[in-house]
Amino acid sequence: MDIVSQLVSERPDFFANRSADGAQTVAINDFIHMSPGLSNAYMVLTSAGRVVINTGMGFESPEHKKAFDAVCPGPTPYILLTQGHVDHVGGVGLFREPQTKLVAQRNLDACQEDDRRIKAVRQAQSSIWFKSALTRAAQGETEAKPAFVQDVPVADIVFDDHHRLDVGDMSFELYSTPGGETIDSCVVWLPRHRILFSGNVFGPLFPHFPNFNTIRGDKYRWAEPYLASLRRIRALAPEMLITGHFKPIVGADLIKACLDRLEAAVDFVHRETLKGMNSGKDIWTLMREVRLPPELHVGEGYGKVSWAVRTFWESYMGWFKADDTSELYPSRPRDIYPDLVELAGIGAVVARGRGKLAAGDPEAALLLAEAALAADSGHRASLQLARDCHQSLLDRSGAANFWETGWLRHRIDQLDTALRAG
User: How far apart are the first and last CA of the chain?
Assistant: First the structure.
């Protein structure tokens, strides 16, 4: 097994992530401390006080602060943000002191505004995967907990491409990496120590295929900015990579090998998708056919190659697939499922689905189950077929991908509830 594949096999999956619990910090070295959480918070000790890099979710930031205060209670001249997602910025208000300067890439405000626009629908969909965290955050708001819960971070210092800070005996350089999860993504570089805080520019799992579209809901991300950001990081030649989640990756050769592999994998999928598009292949065929060759193996625990193919296709071509005229209108195919099921008979539809499932085609079987349930949402045999299809898909996935696994488990729970009610 090559060193990249070995690292993939050794790193935990995202289901291993836990919110901060007040435990002691993890000392990465004698001047960097990590407080693990849904997204890790970091503290860098300098002769002028501490610099905090990301602050976690609002509800868990008191635990981060308690852990950091036990090592160095301040002062906190700077807070640095690697991106504007709530699990990185939620505790800014708690960590701020009168003299603290918040530093972020200039697009932080735009990201916060995007989050505000779709807050209700994003939270509703995100709760499928993050129900516990969102419930705790909401409780903080309704119970009028400290201001960190309501805080919308506004940076004191913004930069476009690059910014340098000298804090006591430590130098920090921030580089914009808009190919990450957000357009305000950046990395924090300690040049004298060759340590890079990458946040989630590569996603929460490293080295895994990036999530160019997350099914919890977010804007599409593009291949070229991702690759440009990756190359920018590789040019720095870090000897330690401190990511947004889990333990650091150590060793310049290992880090470079991972970055080389990620670049080659993303470039391959991007090119193969474009080649297939231009040869007339449809999006569904490409989702089935484009696969990484063994020598480009990376994890797919957060992003998936097939989902990237679909995102690339739609990013270039939009939502119209030019397959059916009905795509242009608001009537969905499932709107006429009840008519088709009535013509065939719901028993026959379920029986055909059972046959597909027995033949090892749970995807086709699920389509038939969904058609039957559109006709009769309480039909027990249809519910059981749908439940068995989801279980088969979960077994097939091997619980490998956080998003897919989370969705399948969510639907199985819903179907089990419906079956018990019936």
Answer: 50
